[in-house]
Design a protein that fits this description.
Elements (H helix, E strand, L loop, with lengths): L10 E5 L3 H12 L5 E5 L15 H4 L4 H4 L4 H6 L2 E4 L4 E5 L4 E4 L4 E3 L2 E4 L3 E3 L4 H4 L5 E2 L4 H7 L8 E5 L3 H12 L3 E6 L11 H13 L3 E4 L3 E7 L2 E7 L4 E3 L2 E4 L3 E3 L2 H5 L8 E2 L11 E3 L4 E5 L2 E3 L4 H15 L11 E6 L2 E7 L6 E6 L5 E7 L2 E8 L2 H13 L5 H5 L12
Parallel strand pairs: 1-2, 1-7, 2-3, 7-19, 9-16, 10-11, 10-16, 11-12, 18-20
Antiparallel strand pairs: 4-5, 5-6, 8-17, 13-14, 14-15, 20-21, 22-23, 23-26, 24-25, 25-26
Helix pairs in contact: 1-10
Length: 412
Amino acid sequence: MRDAASTSGETTIVIGAGQAGFSFSARLRELGYLGDIILIGDEHHAPYQRPPLSKAYLLGDMSLDRMLLRPAEFYTDQGIDLRTGTQVAAIAADSKTVTLGDGTRLAYTHLILATGSTPRELPRSLSGGLDGIYYMRAIADADAIEPEFTSGRRALVVGGGYIGLEAAAVAAKRGVRVVLIEAADRILQRVACSQTSNYFRDVHRSHGVDIREGVGLQALHGKDGRVSSATLSDGTSLDIDFVIAGIGILPKEDLAQAAGLECENGIRVDATCTTSDPAILAVGDCACFPSNGHYMRLESVVNAIDQGQLAADNVMGSDEPYVAKPWFWSDQYDIKLQIAGLSANFDRIIVRGGKAASRSHWYFAGDDLLAVDAMNDPRAYMVAKRLIEAGKSPPADAVSDTNLDLKNLLKT
């Protein structure tokens, strides 16, 4: 590790004031870094938690103050120069400078890209540039959508991934009549097994959500510049009041590309989160990193925190590789879904039943445990998470035995 005194006189600039940028900045100061830290965010808010946006915040169960990662005085106390509502226009890697939207130029010793991601938008050929079409990524998005959530209104949700399902759940709880369409054969097809898809399809339909799978969006139509109806790929026409699109996100890599950094499905980094320029690191949703022989991105809070903290350690000279510990969660109605591990290339699912809506789906490749989806089953989630992180795989018949205390699996 570098001696803290050696950092005096340095300047570290962080572009992106989300979870990853915050985690990096806080950790760097915690490690005794004496240089300047400038944390730049394009939103007009201090760093905040994003997951509640499509859940508790939209429902009115959580205020903005409660979502803030730290109160405003934290940044002053820690000597972190937080600049909100600030755009970054360009990075000049050769001169190690950043140009802001107002023309201000800042020199850096280290540059951290925590630019995150942006929602994939509906093609203009489908949306027609109409009002009443929403995406969910930031507080401004949630604030814009919230007035639409009035009992009796009609919403079309495009996309049956977690964002679309969470938005549908909130809308339904607010009394909105929801039709959700998914172009793939089933909801959650890209990220979950059919058993998990079936579970959540049943949950949503029990709350009145009209789920239509294998059906895409052909066109949106408007009246007076605002969306009023939709034509689906099966020829169905729907009268609607607004649309929520949850069709994926894209890494924000434009600044990195323009600066000449290597990018492919995000900003390419090595195992230490360093980009193709040794003075620039990238963390969080925007970073594409090596893992088990291939490159991947992880769109999760835990990844943002862990990568941000590791990058701070490495700026201080640790030179440690990043080892992903993927886990995710989703809240829909009274169901908490917790996911541990990565389920790619599974060849069988072991279903473990529980009480009422409690259930877990265990993903195996041969005899190897890859991941688990746990619905209202925190014990199954915690046991599976510990097994996966330890590289242990329990016998499949033991997992399915509901008479067995799951904690016994940790003893094998």
